[in-house]
Amino acid sequence: MQPVTFLEALQYAHSKKIVLPDEFYSMDLKTRQMATTVSFLSSLEQIETVIKAVNKSIADGGTFKDFQKLIEESEIILPKHYLDNVFRTNIQSAYGHGRWQQQQRNKAKRPYLMYSAINDSRVRPSHLALDRIVLPIDHPFWLSHYPPISFRCRCTVIALTEKQALKYGITPDDKLPDVAEALDWSSHPLQFGELESLVDKKISTSSLDKEYLLEQKEVIKAEWRASKKLTSLFAPMDDKTRDLFDTVANTVIPLDPSIRPSAIRTFLDYVQGNDAALTGYLNSATSSLADDVLKRWLTSDMAAIQAVASNTASTVVGGATIQQVAAYQVGQTVQLSAPLLMTETAGDIVIQIENAKGLGIDLEKLNAGQGVLIPLGLSFEVVSIETIKGKLIYTLKALVS
C-alpha cells in the first residue's frame, strides 16, 4: 500500500475545531472526533498556537525538538512529558485518519486489516494483546479498535490481500481478546454522523453472526451515551476549579499518563463538594447498558487515581451528615455506593474508619488539600457508636478481602 500522504493527514488535522478543555470534555464522543484541545491551557489563542505547531510538524515532517522549539518561542510553558504526549497523539491521530481513508479506497484489492503493535519494552499489554489480529476491513471490531486507541499509542494497521490474510490466519470472533478501548478515548476516523446507518447496512449484508453484531452496535451506542451523561453530571468549572485541575493534572500525569482528564474532573467534584449529581446518579438503580458502562468508568477512575496517591494512614477521620449514618447499627455491614470525603470538620457527627491504610486517595499527595477520599464499593463493619466530648462518633472497620 502506498504511504499515507501528508495531504490526507493535514486535511484531518486542520478540520478539527479548537476548543477549551472544559468544552471538549463536555462533548459526547461523536462530536469530540472533530475537535481538539490542550488540557493545561486556558485560552483558545494558546491552544491554537500549540495545535498549529503540531500541524506544522505534520506538514514539514518535523521532529519533537522542532515542535518544542516552536512552543518555547511562543512563550507557552508546558511540561516536556505533556508536550510529548500532545505532539505524538495528535500526529498519530492525523496519520491514522489518513491511513484509514487510503485503506477504504483500496479495500477491493486489500479487503483485510491486521493490527500491528510495537513489540518492545514500552508497549502496553492491552495493545500487545491485539497484535496480529486479522479481520475484514468492515468488521465492527475496527469501529472501536482502530489505532491510535489511547494517548501516545504507536500501533498501526496494515491492509492485506485475501491471500495474505489467509496466510496470517483470519481471527475468529470467539478468539478476539477482551480488550476495551481506552476510556474517554475514541479515535476511529469514520464520520460518526453516518456511523449508525453504516453499521445497520453492514449488519444486514454481513455473513457474520447477526446477534453478535447487534450486541457490538449496542455497546458502542452505550459508550457514547455514557460519555454524554458523565459530562452532564459535572459541576461547571470556575477559575478555582481550573487552577486545581491543572495542579492535580500536573501531579497525576507524570505518575500515570493513562489517567484521563474526566477522571480528574470526577475526583475534583468530590474534593470540592460538588458531587451531588454524581452521588445521586451512583445511588440510583442501573436501568440501561449506558448506566452500567458509566458506573464502571467511575469506579475505575477512582481506582486509577488511588493507585498513584494511596493513603498511608491506618485510621482516617472525617465529618458526616445525619443522612449518611443515622441508620447505622453496631455489627452492621455497610457498603459505599459513592466516594466518601473524609476531612476535618467542626460538626458534631464524626466517622472514624479503621484498617483504612491503602484504601483511599490522599488529597495531600495530589496537592488537592487535606483529607482522604474513600472510593465507592468498599465494605465496612460498624464497630461502635459512642458519644465523646459532645461528638457522636461512628467507628467503622474496613473489610478487606
Identify the overall geometry.
globular
- Quaternary organisation of the protein chains: single chain
- Low-pLDDT segments, ≥5 res: 1-6, 25-32, 180-195
Classify the secondary structure makeup into a structural class. alpha+beta
SSE order: HEHHEHHHEHEHEHHHHHHHEHEEEEEEE
Indicate the topology:
Layout: H1 6-15, E1 17-18, H2 21-24, H3 29-32, E2 35-36, H4 44-60, H5 64-73, H6 80-105, E3 112-116, H7 125-128, E4 134-136, H8 141-145, E5 156-160, H9 162-168, H10 195-205, H11 210-233, H12 239-255, H13 261-271, H14 276-283, H15 289-308, E6 316-319, H16 322-325, E7 333-335, E8 340-342, E9 349-354, E10 361-362, E11 372-374, E12 379-388, E13 391-398
Parallel strand pairs: 1-2, 9-13
Antiparallel strand pairs: 3-4, 3-5, 6-9, 7-12, 8-11, 10-11, 12-13
Give a short synopsis of this structure:
It is built from 16 helices and 13 strands. 34% of the residues are buried.
Structure description:
- The chain is α+β, with helices and mostly antiparallel strands.
- The protein contains 16 helices and 13 strands.
- It has helices at 6-15, 21-24, 29-32, 44-60, 64-73, 80-105, 125-128, 141-145, 162-168, 195-205, 210-233, 239-255, 261-271, 276-283, 289-308, 322-325; strands at residues 17-18, 35-36, 112-116, 134-136, 156-160, 316-319, 333-335, 340-342, 349-354, 361-362, 372-374, 379-388, 391-398.
- Helix 10 packs antiparallel against helix 11.
- Mean pLDDT is 75; it is low at 1-6, 25-32 and 180-195.
